[in-house]
């Protein structure tokens, strides 16, 4: 099933025709602060997804190398990852080191997002839209 703007427009038009305007829900336009919060949430979600993806990729290298005793728990911290990567056979080392660099960058960016948000959230605001975003626990 394909989705197009034309089909969406028709659905909206039919909805408006079936219901009186007073009964239709109103959706407030988000202000700049709300837009910034949404953007920050999206960015954090993307970096968190990348973190998980990179850890999973690193874990798969251990599995390919036959080091099945290394679990994802062993890959949670930078220090443990570096210790674990040292156990890999040399043919897996370079790829693992590149993944470690990516993980460092991702964790650094997530730390910056959390740090920046804690400074900017001195005001207590109640979000109009709930999203699963750890960085925005404002109330």
How would you explain this protein's 3D organization?
By secondary structure, this protein is mainly alpha-helical. The protein has one domain. The chain is built from 4 helices and no strands. It is elongated. The two termini are 40 Å apart.
What's the structural blueprint in terms of helices and strands?
Blueprint: H1 5-18, H2 32-64, H3 78-85, H4 90-120
Largest sheet: none
What share of the residues lie within helices? 55-70%
Structural class: mainly alpha
Oligomer designation: single chain
Described by the principal axes of the CA atoms, the overall outline is elongated
Mean pLDDT: 86
Identify low-pLDDT runs. Answer: 125-131
Annotation, overall tally of beta strands: 0
Strand fraction equals under 5%
Order of helices and strands: HHHH
Number of domains: 1
- Radius of gyration (CA) equals 23 Å
**Count of separate DSSP helical elements:** 4
- Give the terminus-to-terminus CA distance: 40 Å
């Amino acid at each position: 099933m394909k989705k197009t703007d034309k089909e969406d427009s028709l659905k909206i038009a039919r909805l408006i025709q079936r219901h009186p305007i007073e009964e239709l829900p109103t959706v407030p336009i988000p202000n700049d602060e709300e837009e910034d919060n949404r953007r920050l949430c999206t960015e954090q979600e993307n970096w968190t997804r990348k973190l998980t993806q990179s850890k999973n990729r690193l874990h798969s290298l251990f599995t390919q190398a036959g080091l099945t005793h290394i679990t994802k728990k062993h890959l949670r911290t930078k220090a443990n990852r570096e210790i674990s990567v040292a156990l890999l056979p040399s043919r897996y080392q370079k790829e693992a080191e590149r993944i470690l660099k990516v993980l460092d960058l991702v964790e650094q960016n997530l730390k910056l997002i959390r740090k920046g948000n804690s400074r900017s959230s001195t005001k207590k605001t109640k979000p109009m839209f709930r999203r699963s975003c750890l960085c925005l626990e404002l109330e």
